[in-house]
Amino acid sequence: MNLKSKIFYWYIVFVLTFACLALIPTPDKATLSKYHLSPTGLRLLDLTLIIPEAGIWFAAFYGSQKFHRYSQLIKGGKDGPHIAKLSLGLLLLSFGLPIAATLSGALNIVALHQPGFKSASVIISNYIGIIFPLLAFFWISLGARGLGDMSRTRPRFSIANLVVLSVFTLGVVFCCLIVLNHRTLRTTYGLSPQLVMLTVGLPYMYTWLLGLSAIAELRAYTLKLRGVVYRKGWRLLILGLASIILVDILLQYLVTLTSWLTSLSLNGLLLLLYGLLFLLAGAYIVLALGAQRLMKIEEV
Q1: Among 64, 95, 149, 190, which is most buried by a count of CB atoms within 10 Å?
Q2: In a domain, 1, yes or no
Q3: Could you tell me the residue range of the domain that residue 228 belongs to?
Q4: Residue 245: inside a domain, yes or no?
Q5: How far apart are CA 223 and CA 221, in angstroms?
Q6: Is 169 contained in some domain?
Q7: First to last CA, the chain
């Protein structure tokens, strides 16, 4: 991103807003007591999480901007409309990260001053976290399908079946975790197990299906592309998208294990959080590298 980019200014606004929402409110006394921290110590720990999260947002915004630039360069070609749909999906994916985090932080502050709003804030935050990935992978899947139709390529029958079987298995395990941990999940989701599976579990499963299907479509499309460098750019992009989906699946699994997460020591919890941030950062960096490579090829 360059200083003249509108996306860069949006990025700065989101980072500053999120940092203020996380650091300005008075720290929760229960959290301070549980982990034996001072208010200053907790804010410093929060800062060690905010900084890598801001780095992830930067990689996501950078990648989506580069791919948008690539889509503009080839918009006159026969694959232009389909690449534009992919670009829109990546923009939604990148903007969804800070929007969800910022709105969740704002809702938490409201809940601190209005305890009766706590349950509603949890429910709204969870649904905000669902809607952006769902919309993003919907458009990504449309673009991938369009590229497949245009190039007359389709994933092999075995690959298509593997995608469906994987999502089905992941969904069954996800629903089982919700049922097994239903007593503690009311705090996490603010809903009954049945509603969690219907309004949270199913949308996530559909998102995973869209994402993995799009990856299979893009992989089949890239096999017919000419040029080693061009294929490498697409492969990096596909690897980044696949990694993002896998990290999201892991994250949703962990969210269902609330009782286990709350039993972790501070060091164990931080190690887990840093590990997730590291994986997510790697996924978006790979995606950004792929988008940058594609853009540079067209600019030559």
Answers
A1: 64
A2: no
A3: 6-299
A4: yes
A5: 6
A6: yes
A7: 19
Per-residue pLDDT at 3? 47
Q: Which amino acid is at 160?
A: A
Contact 286, 64 (CB under 8 A): no
Residue 184, amino acid: T
Residue 162: partners with Cβ closer than 8 Å, 6 or more residues away: none
What is the value of pTM for the model shown?
0.91
**130: Cβ contacts below 8 Å, ≥ 6 apart:** 200, 203, 204, 207
Asked if pLDDT for residue 238 goes beyond 60, the answer is yes
How far is residue 267's CA from residue 29's CA, in Å, rounded to a whole number? 19
Residue written as tokens 């469906």? 164
Quote the pLDDT of residue 4: 53
Identify whether 53 is part of a domain: yes
Q: Which residues contact 114 (CB under 8 A, 6 or more apart)?
A: none
Rounded CA gap, 92 and 67, in Å? 13
Instruction: Kindly list the distances between the CA atom of residue 17 and the CA atoms of 20, 103, 130, 208, 281, in Å, as whole numbers in the listed order.
Output: 5, 10, 21, 30, 21
Three-class SS state of 114: coil
Buried b (16+ CB within 10 A) or exposed e, 55-71: bbbbbbbbbbbbbbbbb
**Alpha-carbon gap, residue 33 to 205, rounded angstroms:** 37
Average pLDDT value for residue range 36-61: 90
The answer to whether 284 and 60 are in contact (CB under 8 A) is: yes
Instruction: Give how many domains the chain has, as a whole number.
Output: 1
